[in-house]
Amino acid sequence: MERLQKAMAEAGVASRRASEKLILQGKVAVNGTIVKELGTKVGTHDEIVVNGVPIQREQHVYYLLNKPRGVISSAHDDKGRRTVVDIIHDEDIDERIYPVGRLDYDTTGILLLTNDGALANKLMHPKYEVEKTYIAKVEGIIKNDELKQLRLGVIVDGRKTKPAKSKLINVDRAKKTSLVQLTIHEGRNHQVKNMFKVVGHPVIKLHRETYGPLNLYGLQPGEFRALKPEEIQMLKK
Predict the structure, then answer these.
(1) Which domain of life is it from (predicted)?
(2) Are 72 and 105 in contact (CB under 8 A)?
(3) Phi-psi sector, 108: left (phi>0), alpha (psi -120 to 50), beta
């Protein structure tokens, strides 16, 4: 069971706050009865009618995508560029879905897409500290004290980043590049790139390899799969 305004918002009727206004105005009926109480709970089999029109309640779906380079992490793009949702819909999957968080246009790796707004909001909320692990190829040979700075936090846009995990994977002394693994649980814009920039090692390539308990095992760039029931439960926990 869930609150009526939440069910309306997830069905795309309006935002949760706007849905509350519709309820208070007497424009919403549940199983044929006008409802004006915001605490009303509804189940999956209850019929909800808004302004005389039954709403279509979607089943929640969850997809894991290995995002390729040159694709926008959005449901739509005003410039007509290919989006991560386009990749899913190419396989005749019609549910209204959107990505949980974003990866930059040139960043590759793991991305979750769903129509479960409640779960998406929790996964993106800082207080739940969902870990995300990235592999970054950066300019220069990174030093131990710079890795320590990343672990302790650096100042980005006037705010210190939360403690992270950093690990040197490899260095190419001929090309003067380093391969570094970085695990964070924040979600600021361009955070990983900005963190490396602060310590003097601009990112050349960036790949996200894990998201919480999920990984990309068996998925090539551009491929996706539905989450298994046990994976969905792990995310919800």
Answers:
(1) Bacteria
(2) yes
(3) beta
d(CA 5, CA 10) in angstroms, rounded, equals: 9
The token duo for 218 is 């068996």
- Domains of the chain from N-terminus onward: 2-54 (3.10.290.10), 62-126+214-236 (3.30.70.580), 131-211 (3.30.70.1560)
Q: Are 176 and 141 in contact (CB under 8 A)?
A: yes
CA neighbor of 147 nearest in space, from 198, 190, 204, 205: 198
Could you read off the pLDDT of 4-56 as tens digits, one per residue? 988 888 777 888 889 999 999 999 999 999 999 998 999 878 899 999 999 87
Expressed in percent and rounded to 5, the helix, strand and coil fractions of the chain are 25, 30, 45
Answer yes or no: are the C-beta atoms of 63 and 112 closer than 8 Å: yes
Q: Is the separation of the CB atoms in 143 and 178 below 8 Å?
A: no
Q: 54's torsion region: left (phi>0), alpha (psi -120 to 50) or beta?
A: beta
Can you read off the two tokens belonging to residue 43?
């189940």
Give the pLDDT confidence of 104-151 residue by residue, as tens digits.
999 999 999 998 887 888 898 888 889 999 999 999 999 999 999 999
Half-sphere exposure of 135 (CA within 13 A, CB side): 11
Q: Among residues 46, 77, 86, 104, which one is catalytic?
A: 104
Structure tokens at 1: 């069971």
Active site residue 104: yes
Amino acid type, 206: L
The predicted model scores a pTM of 0.80
